[in-house]
Design goal:
Length: 277
């Protein structure tokens, strides 16, 4: 499902970490979508200030956690934002991390009920997306939303996901990056973020499906795993790794910068990305 203005490159970052000034600069650099991570609350604070600061840039949540935010409440926020900025907001939802939320209900059933509630609240299918890794949830994203927002994935996962969802479903893949040509130092930076996910069963199971071994996914993660999930090197080398997702069928790649000065990294990366599309 095509979303007008989505573009090929977005930026994934904690929902409270973007400023309007940064959003404006990122739009000028060619990053057409901001993805707000970290499960924002139902009020979706900050979304409108980012949209106000930009001309055509889209903003999406990646994701609102269904365990912590009632569907009816986030639907009210969706309608508030959509009324002011028609077609520029995407409501991404997902199950988050049940291990940390203390929830024991089957995630798939909870997702179905949440999407039902969004239907009842008038949130249209074409303005929402679903965090999805495995085939069953990818199919749910295809059938009940505009598309899928896979996180912590590789181009091989993107290829398989595209086969599952078909040609007409939105597919936005996330990949972490470290702009550093010193491999050991870059891997240390990458591990600080990736290691957390190696304690979560849904991500570990997906990595095993992609061919990573038990040794790869055991904390703190093998060099092979870290190199795949947190790309490092020169801007050109990182751009090649990111655009591999596009070659594998992604509509957009959501770039998560792990460097401390994330804006400097995105400035350096922008020309290398532009040269590849």
């Amino acid at each position: 499902m095509t979303i007008e203005g989505l573009g090929r490159f977005g930026v994934w970052r904690y929902y409270a970490a973007f400023t309007p000034e940064q959003a404006r600069e990122l739009e000028g650099l060619g990053y057409s979508t901001l993805w707000l991570g970290g499960s924002p609350p139902a009020e979706l604070p900050g979304v409108e200030s980012l949209l106000e600061a930009t001309e055509t840039q889209l903003v999406g949540t990646s994701i609102v956690n269904i365990w912590s935010v009632p569907a009816e409440a986030v639907a009210e926020s969706y309608h508030r934002i959509e009324a002011r900025f028609p077609g520029r907001f995407i409501l991404g939802v997902g199950v988050g991390h049940p291990e940390h939320d203390g929830v024991y209900r089957k995630p798939y059933d909870a997702l179905v009920d949440y999407l039902d509630a969004l239907d009842n609240a008038g949130v249209p299918k074409e303005r929402r997306a679903l965090a999805a890794l495995g085939p069953r949830v990818l199919e749910l994203a295809r059938d009940r939303t505009a598309g899928a927002l896979p996180y912590l994935t590789t181009p091989e996962h993107t290829r398989r996901a595209r086969e599952t969802v078909g040609a007409d479903t939105l597919l936005v893949a996330e990949n972490k990056i470290v702009l550093d040509t010193e491999a050991d130092r870059a891997r240390t930076t990458g591990r600080r973020t990736v290691e957390f996910y190696l304690g979560l069963t849904n991500y570990v199971a997906n990595l095993r499906r992609l061919g990573f071994t038990e040794a790869d996914v055991t904390k703190p993660g093998s060099d092979r795993l870290i190199d795949a999930l947190a790309l490092h090197g020169t801007a050109d080398e990182i751009a090649a790794g990111l655009t591999a997702h596009l070659d594998a069928g992604a509509d957009q790649i959501a770039v998560q910068v792990l460097d401390e000065d994330y804006m400097s990294t995105l400035r350096a990366l922008a020309p290398a990305l532009a040269a590849r599309v």
